[in-house]
Automatic annotation (TrEMBL), chain A:
Subcellular location: Cytoplasm
Keywords on record: Aminoacyl-tRNA synthetase, ATP-binding, Cytoplasm, Ligase, Magnesium, Metal-binding, Nucleotide-binding, Protein biosynthesis
Record has S-adenosyl-L-methionine as a keyword: no
Protein name, per record: Phenylalanine--tRNA ligase beta subunit
Gene name in the database record: pheT
GO BP: any one term: phenylalanyl-tRNA aminoacylation
EC number: 6.1.1.20
Keyword Cell cycle assigned: no
Stretches assigned to the FDX-ACB domain: 566-653
Pfam family, one: tRNA_synthFbeta
Record's subunit section: Tetramer of two alpha and two beta subunits.
Domain B5 positions: 285-363
Organism, as annotated: Candidatus Woykebacteria bacterium RIFCSPHIGHO2_12_FULL_45_10
UniProtKB/TrEMBL annotation, chain B:
One annotated GO biological process: phenylalanyl-tRNA aminoacylation
Assigned EC number: 6.1.1.20
Lineage: Bacteria, Candidatus Woykeibacteriota
Domain of life: Bacteria
Subcellular location: Cytoplasm
Protein's UniProt name: Phenylalanine--tRNA ligase alpha subunit
Gene Ontology cellular-component terms listed: cytoplasm
UniProt record similarity statement: Belongs to the class-II aminoacyl-tRNA synthetase family. Phe-tRNA synthetase alpha subunit type 1 subfamily.
Reaction catalysed by this enzyme: tRNA(Phe) + L-phenylalanine + ATP = L-phenylalanyl-tRNA(Phe) + AMP + diphosphate + H(+)
Amino-acid positions noted as binding Mg(2+) in the UniProt annotation, renumbered to this chain: 254
Pfam families in UniProt: Phe_tRNA-synt_N, tRNA-synt_2d
Organism the protein comes from: Candidatus Woykebacteria bacterium RIFCSPHIGHO2_12_FULL_45_10
Cofactor(s) listed in the protein's UniProt record: Mg(2+)
């Protein structure tokens, strides 16, 4: 909302600088976003929240200024010379559904002379961004800007027969003032005469009844429309005007009368002409009053406000305050017609708070006891995982939740199986990610060339078609598989040291997928990314990718015991063997672990030779209760060797 | 002696050794200057015929260099920290050179802000929980007094999945959701991702982060909210931080306020919206609005990170650019 300072000053005295005034307005809740200087004029650009359409008018803003400054608000000049002579009756407007237009004022002015507006008026409109057209149209716009109430003037001589205001039917057309023929859906408000639609009510007048140089007689119509109908029409037609912006809010219930009087005065003064008809005005009930218990101020705001301050603030904003002689702590507050946003005591509390000034409030801290909610008992797995992955060299990132069809397809994911938004803005942000991998692969791709080793992880929600939206951790890395697995294992071991890493399946997306399962619950997965997919993302390194299914952990507590430190020395034995080249080396370790007094077993070398592979294992023997003798160890070792030979057909290499 | 066979034998022995001492004694055994097996082969060269020499010398040289490499590789594998390069490194020791960065991964600046916010509010007794991103119109809008066709919906351009489901436009969807299943007193943070259907530029993205705070109790007032905000911002930006508060409008809080921060001593910048939870919202959660009151606030972690680090383009947070992430 643009408000020239000179215009505001017609209604309120301003004795401070524009900057100071802007600050005062802001601190009372009317936000000045910018102060513009146009020639000698100063124009405030205000952010008006949707609850305050009364400040979508200069007069409403002036009222705020008067309240903040504690100065007087001058009345809007609507004094009109009382029309002389016999008045014709006002043209009838038939309204089929009262809800569409609960209140209005209308009347006829005859013998106007349409010509360009006087300079001051035209210039003022330009300052607020409205193009001057002619004096009559300009005055309707001027009064709208001044009062916040839109008005419309028809060329009365272009209207044939009786006027009807009704809801549009699907497919009806109206050609608006901007020359565009608009096809309507059902439910828009229109006005028609006996032959044609003449107004897309609340948005823009019809071209066929517009004021032009030849216009002599005008029908001035100042309505209040059903906000929802206006808003829907605005959305359906994509037409948003200064009028519709106001009509879709709760306008001053009595504002149509004031605006009619003000416009009539200006038209007769500026464009000549005279009021020739009775004024027809239909109003919905405007009185509304509230009982205001002052105790709420202390309860909600936390401060004591003196009674006279409360009365001053409310009166200044136009509320009618009366004291209840029997209830010391209660006020009866009449709500002014322009404050449709005030519904209860809590709204009055806000009015007092914002004008009193929040920056004058003392600052306190919550008084109640610290609550204990059940979430607090859960182990923070997310925090632990972030720590492990960061220490493991993974960078935490965030990628977009919405992605493109192209990205899905590059990752071999099926768009038809993926949730999508119904109203995408661009095709880059259309589908809800079913997995974090596609965008994480994009992340690797985007950084290739910068680093040899690229590792990312992300925590976020993924979406399945039947609208489940689990939160997961996914990670990708160009590190060797074993190193990635090592990081994941650090997390998994904290969940349950006995979890086994199992091959799940050959999938379409990964070469082989492995998973950590607890019973039937899959807690984590890990795989190498399929080279075809990597190629789609222009990645020419091997990439390991995995996920931890966070929500399945939420009820688990870490199940991790420390190993007592050994009291007796270890005996370390190396064991080398040939096995079939496709035998998972893990099986060798499993057998080693089964051996007597084995406290550690690890593969320290592995290489392929023909169709065999050589595996070297380091086994640590250590007893809890004594120092092992060489002889004992030799026996234990021999047993492991026999098992390896028997179960895995290993050929033990003798040193 | 068959050199190929010898090579194979030595290499597999090298592979089998796992201590540095063992490796060293093995090296002496084969390459030792006096007794080394391979060294001794060289000693035999003078006694060979010319033809033999031409054949043996290159083969022996090759064997020796291959074995040397195998020892060296194994050595660095067994102890990558020290080994052969230590002496060289010491020779070039220069304390004035910049330190080498730690090998850990980097955190994300906006997520780091969320962690800081959690920590600050944890001190004040707040917990946190995440919420659904695909949300119903009911919890995102209607229960917060943003009824269908409400003009305030314009300020929250919305992605819809269908008539009923949408991508939440704010973390305030958690207010009623949480209160429905948790009896007050409540002190909670709701961090998470939100969505707005807006054109992308340096300050707008289709998805971004928000963090909501909610306190509901039998006794709570705006002065508490102001005190908490003041503590929070001073803790985040320093004790001398200047803030100001003014009235605003959110349909789900009454009174509503906005908070600005004096940025670099010269410019007031909006940092958060807040207010007393509207009694109707309390009622919408099935609670007695005469008994319970509360306050809520919401803010954007990216925006806070932008202020703190001087970042000018919000898109950097979602690009996964290592050059960017490595700075945090």
């Amino acid at each position: 909302m643009l408000a020239p300072l000179s215009w505001l000053k017609e209604f309120v005295k301003v004795s401070v600088s524009a900057e100071k005034l802007a600050e005062n307005l802001l601190l009372s809740g009317t936000k000045v976003e910018q102060i513009r200087r146009v020639g000698k004029e100063i124009v405030f650009d205000l952010e008006i929240t949707p609850n305050r359409p009364d400040t979508l008018g200069i007069y409403g803003i002036a009222r705020e200024i008067a309240t903040v400054q504690g100065s007087d608000l001058l009345p809007l000049d609507t004094d009109l010379l009382i029309p002389t002579g016999r008045l014709e009756s006002a043209p009838a407007l038939k309204i089929t559904d009262k809800k569409l237009c609960p209140s209005y004022t209308l009347g006829l002015l005859r013998s106007v002379r349409v010509k360009p507006s006087p300079t001051y008026l035209a210039e003022r409109l330009k300052l607020v961004g409205i193009r001057p057209v002619n004096n009559v149209v300009d005055i309707t716009n001027y009064v709208m800007w001044e009062t916040g109430q839109p008005l419309h003037a028809f060329d009365f001589d272009k209207i044939e027969g009786e006027l009807t205001l009704r809801a549009s039917k699907e497919g009806e057309q109206v050609r608006t003032l901007d020359g565009i023929s608009r096809k309507l859906s059902s439910g828009s408000i229109i006005i028609e005469d006996s032959r044609k639609l003449i107004d897309l009510a609340g948005l823009m007048g019809g071209e066929n009844s517009e004021i032009d140089e030849g216009t002599q007689n005008i029908l001035l119509h100042v309505p209040i429309y059903d906000p929802i109908a206006i808003r829907r029409t605005s959305q359906q037609t994509g037409l948003r005007t200064e009028s519709s912006n106001r009509f879709e809010k709760k306008l001053d219930r009595a504002g149509h009368i004031t605006a009619f009087e003000r416009a009539t005065k200006l038209i007769t003064e500026i464009a000549g002409g005279r009021v020739s008809s009775e004024t027809k005005s239909i109003s919905a009930p405007t009185k509304k009053s509230l009982i205001f218990d002052l105790g709420i101020l202390k309860e909600v705001l936390g401060i004591e406000v003196k009674l006279n301050q409360v009365v001053n603030i409310l009166s200044s904003l136009g509320f009618q305050v009366s004291l209840d002689p029997f209830q010391e702590n209660q006020l009866r507050v009449g709500v002014p017609s322009w404050r449709g946003d005030i519904e209860g005591a809590i709204d009055l509390t806000e009015e007092i708070g914002r004008i009193y000034g929040y920056n004058r409030f003392p600052k306190t801290l919550p008084k109640g006891a610290v609550p204990v909610q059940k979430e607090l008992y859960n182990f923070d797995w997310e925090k632990f995982i972030v720590q492990v992955f960061r220490e493991g060299g993974f960078n935490q990132t965030m990628t977009h939740t919405l992605l493109s069809k192209k990205t899905l397809e590059r990752a071999s994911l099926e768009p038809s199986q993926t949730l999508k938004v119904a109203n995408p803005m661009t095709e880059d942000f259309e589908f809800l990610r079913p997995s974090l991998y596609p965008e994480l692969l994009v992340a690797i791709s985007r950084n290739r060339g910068k680093d040899k080793i690229i590792s990312f992880f992300e925590i976020g929600r993924v979406f399945e078609k039947e609208v489940s939206q689990p939160k997961i951790v996914s990670f990708v890395s160009t590190k060797p598989f074993s190193q990635v697995k090592g990081v994941l294992e650090k997390v998994v071991k904290r969940i349950d040291p006995n979890l086994k890493f199992e091959k799940v399946e050959e999938t379409t997306t990964g070469i082989e997928r492995y998973s950590f399962d607890k019973g039937k619950l899959q807690l984590a997965e890990l795989s190498l990314v399929n080279p075809t997919i990597l190629k789609n993302f222009e990645i020419n390194q091997t990439v390991s990718a995995g996920s931890i299914f966070l929500e399945k952990l939420s009820d688990l507590q870490p199940n991790y015991l420390y190993q007592p430190l050994p009291k007796f020395p270890p005996v370390i034995e190396d064991l080398s063997m040939f096995v079939a080249s496709d035998l998972p080396a893990r099986k060798i370790l499993d057998i080693a672990w089964e051996g007597t007094a084995v406290s550690e077993a690890e593969v320290f070398d592995i290489f392929r030779e023909g169709n065999q592979k050589s595996v070297a294992v380091k086994i640590t023997f250590q007893a809890k209760d004594r120092t092992l003798t060489d002889k004992e160890v030799a026996v234990f070792r021999a047993k492991i060797e026999r098992n390896l030979e028997k179960k895995l057909l290993a050929k033990i290499r003798k040193a | 002696m068959d050199l190929a066979k010898l090579k194979q034998q030595v290499i597999s022995e090298i592979q089998a050794v796992h201590t540095q001492d063992g490796l060293e004694s093995m090296r002496i055994k084969y390459l030792g200057r006096k007794q080394g097996l391979v060294t001794k082969l060289f000693e035999k060269i003078p006694s060979l015929s010319l033809v033999e020499k031409r054949k043996q010398v290159p083969a022996l040289n090759q064997l020796r260099s291959q074995l040397e490499k195998a020892f060296k590789d194994r050595e660095s594998l067994l102890n990558p920290q020290v080994g052969a390069t230590t002496e060289k490194k010491l020779a070039f020791f220069d304390a004035s050179l910049p330190g080498s960065p730690p090998q850990a991964g980097h955190s994300h600046p906006a997520l780091q802000i969320i962690e800081e916010i959690k920590e600050i509010f944890h001190y004040l007794g707040f917990g946190w929980v995440d919420g659904p991103e695909v949300e119903t119109d009911l919890y995102n809008f209607q229960k917060l007094r943003l009824y269908k066709d409400h003009p305030a919906r314009d300020t929250q351009q919305t992605y819809y999945l269908n008539e009923e489901l949408l991508l939440r436009t704010h973390t305030s969807n958690m207010q009623v959701r949480y209160l429905e299943s948790h009896k007050p007193p409540v002190r909670m943070l709701f961090p998470g991702r939100v969505f707005r259907r807006e054109a992308i530029d340096a300050t707008h993205l289709p998805d971004f982060l928000q963090i909501e705070g909610l306190l509901v109790d039998t006794e709570s007032s705006l002065t508490d909210l102001l005190g908490v905000i003041d503590f929070f911002l001073k803790r985040l930006f320093g004790e001398k931080t200047k803030t100001r508060v003014y009235g605003h409008h959110f349909p789900y809080t009454e009174p509503s306020i906005e908070v600005e921060l004096l940025y670099q001593g010269k410019k007031w910048l909006e940092i958060m919206g807040a207010g007393m939870v509207h009694p109707e919202v309390i009622r919408n959660a099935g609670l007695d609005a005469k008994k319970y009151r509360g306050w809520a606030f919401g803010m954007g972690p990216e925006r806070i990170a932008m202020l703190r680090y001087g970042i000018e383009d919000i898109r950097l947070f979602y690009n996964s650019d290592l050059e960017f992430l490595k700075q945090f």
